[in-house]
């Protein structure tokens, strides 16, 4: 038999079922005719029997205990390694901010300390605010005798103002003095309003003319 | 190929462990500790050292969990770590292998229906086998251990040891020839009766 055809190098793989079908067939065909390779195969089979004597050892409980202890310890220390630098940084930042604030609040000798504006304090019993406040109450229209009658009085839609509105309280000018003539005018407008005379904007011009005529007539 | 290995239940456990699930990690350790311990034992010949190395292997597995990618079976990846830990141990301890002490290191495993004489013969053979394994060169020892005692396919061994399948085949065959030379050539005919067919996993 040609020694190059021997299959001795494949026998370990053959016994371990690591050959594909073609290689396996080739080895088996060769083994039928080659006594030398058959002896070699017997040797490997015997080796398998001997190696099987060597029994596996069993792990003690110490392995799992030791591993889990170590792992838990590392997990904790990893957490500390991740978190501690951030905590330290936060502490440093907090300290710096605290120091900056103290420095800002401490006046330097010779420095002019700006006084803060006192907060606006609302009066305890504020004057009652009318729910509907016509614009004319704030700025009454100037009524001049010989004024051209074409200047219209624009009356905005009555605005509902919530009670105790601080804005309105601010808008109110307590020092605004209303003359007796103006008061009369306001009263008349109110009266006409109640009569639904000025509910329509188109009638505003007529209203103005009527008022002026009435005023002139009363003066005469 | 990544998707194929995601079906491996061990890969699933490992991915959970990577998310910090210690229960999954513990399950993995319990499942594989015997295989790792025995590979380390075959490699070092010393059960105490094998236990230390086994712990080291699993701690390394935990440390590497976050970078773990399921590109192979979990056991393949695990035995890559086993190989590295064993080789590091060998480097650390010097090039000398621990000489086996038959009385101290050989693990006692009781066999049923074994008389004292058979027991003594078996122990002697086990010692001889372990010495023969440890006499193998480094390059042949781990491929033989993974094939013979872990029943790993050649392809998995090749991946675990970062070798070609052809190289694994050659190394295992050389290792087996070396063992056969040491164990069979001087075998006494009357001791052939002691052999049994058990394997480990």
Main beta sheet of chain A, described? none
- Summed over residues and divided by their number, the pLDDT of chain B gives a mean of 85
Rg of chain B, Cα atoms, Å: 18 Å
CATH fold-level label of the largest domain in chain B:
Rna Polymerase Sigma Factor, Chain: A
The portion of residues assigned to helices of chain A is 55-70%
Tell me the series of helices and strands of chain A, N- to C-terminal. HHHHHHHH
| CATH C-level name of the largest domain in chain B | Mainly Alpha
Q: What gap, in angstroms, lies between the N and C termini of chain A?
A: 155 Å
Domain count of chain B: the total is: 2
Low-pLDDT segments of chain B: 196-201
Please write out the topology.
The complex is a heterodimer of chains A (220) and B (201).
Chain A: H1 11-15, H2 21-33, H3 35-53, H4 61-105, H5 135-138, H6 166-171, H7 180-194, H8 204-219
Chain B: H1 2-5, H2 9-18, H3 22-44, H4 47-63, H5 74-92, H6 102-105, H7 116-134, H8 138-148, H9 154-161, H10 165-183
Helix pairs in contact in B: 2-3, 3-4, 3-5, 4-5, 5-9, 7-10, 8-9, 8-10, 9-10
What's this, in brief?
The complex is a heterodimer of chains A (220) and B (201). With 220 residues, chain A is an all-alpha fold.
List the keywords.
heterodimer; A: 220 residues; mainly alpha; 3 domains; B: 201 residues; Rna Polymerase Sigma Factor, Chain: A; Arc Repressor Mutant, subunit A; 10 helices
Write structural notes for this entry.
The complex is a heterodimer of chains A (220) and B (201). Chain A is mainly alpha-helical. Chain A has 3 domains: 3-53; 57-107; 135-219, no CATH class. Chain A has 8 helices and no strands. Chain B has 201 residues and is mainly α. Chain B has 2 domains: 1-93, Orthogonal Bundle (Rna Polymerase Sigma Factor, Chain: A), CATH 1.10.1740.10; 115-201, Arc Repressor Mutant, subunit A, CATH 1.10.10.10. Chain B is 67% helix and 0% strand. Chain B contains 10 helices and no strands. Chain B has helices at residues 2-5, 9-18, 22-44, 47-63, 74-92, 102-105, 116-134, 138-148, 154-161, 165-183. In chain B, α8 (138-148) crosses α10 (165-183). The model of chain B is unreliable at 196-201 (pLDDT under 50). Chain A binds chain B through residues 9, 11-13, 16, 18, 43-44, 46-47, 49-60, 62-64, 66-68, 70-72, 74-75, and chain B through 20, 22, 25-26, 29-30, 33-34, 37-38, 41, 47, 50-51, 54-55, 58-59, 62-63, 107, 109, 122, 125-126, 129-130, 147-149, 153-154, 169-170, 172-173, 176, 179-180, 183-184, 187, 194-201.
């Amino acid at each position: 038999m040609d020694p190059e055809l021997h299959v001795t190098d494949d026998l370990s793989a053959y016994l371990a079922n690591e050959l594909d079908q073609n290689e396996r067939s080739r080895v088996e065909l060769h083994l039928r005719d080659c006594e030398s390779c058959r002896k070699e195969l017997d040797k490997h089979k015997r080796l398998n029997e001997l190696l099987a004597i060597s029994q596996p050892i069993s792990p003690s409980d110490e392995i799992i205990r030791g591993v889990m202890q170590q792992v838990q310890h590392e997990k904790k220390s990893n957490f500390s390694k991740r978190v501690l630098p951030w905590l330290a940084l936060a502490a440093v930042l907090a300290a710096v901010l605290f120091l900056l604030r103290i420095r800002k609040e401490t006046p330097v000798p010779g420095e002019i300390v700006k006084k803060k504006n006192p907060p606006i304090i609302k009066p305890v019993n504020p004057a009652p605010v009318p729910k509907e406040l016509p614009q004319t109450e704030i700025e009454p229209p100037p009524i001049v005798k010989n004024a051209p009658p074409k200047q219209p009085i624009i009356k905005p839609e009555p605005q509902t103002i919530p009670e105790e509105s601080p804005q309105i309280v601010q808008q109110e000018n307590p020092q605004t003095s209303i003359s007796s003539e103006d008061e009369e005018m306001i009263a008349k407008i109110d009266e006409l309003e109640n009569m639904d005379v000025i509910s329509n904007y188109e009638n505003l011009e007529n209203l103005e003319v009527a008022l002026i005529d009435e005023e002139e007539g009363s003066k005469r | 190929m990544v998707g194929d290995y995601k079906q491996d239940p061990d890969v699933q456990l490992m991915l959970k462990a990577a998310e910090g699930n210690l229960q999954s990690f513990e399950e993995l350790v319990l499942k594989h500790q015997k295989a790792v311990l025995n590979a380390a034992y075959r490699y070092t010949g010393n059960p105490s050292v094998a236990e230390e190395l086994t712990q080291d292997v699993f701690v390394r597995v935990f440390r590497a969990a976050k970078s773990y990618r399921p590109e192979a079976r979990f056991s393949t990846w695990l035995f890559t770590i086993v190989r590295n830990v064993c080789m590091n141990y060998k480097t650390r301890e010097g090039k000398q292998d621990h000489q086996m002490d038959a009385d101290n290191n050989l693990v006692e495993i009781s066999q049923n229906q074994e008389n004292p004489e058979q027991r003594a013969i078996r122990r002697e053979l086990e010692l001889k086998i372990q010495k023969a394994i440890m006499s193998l060169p480094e390059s042949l020892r781990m491929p033989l251990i993974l094939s013979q005692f872990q029943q790993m396919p050649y392809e998995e061994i090749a991946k675990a040891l970062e070798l070609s399948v052809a190289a694994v085949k050659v190394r295992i065959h050389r290792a087996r020839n070396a063992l056969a030379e040491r164990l069979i050539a001087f075998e006494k005919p009357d001791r052939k009766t002691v052999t049994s067919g058990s394997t480990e996993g």
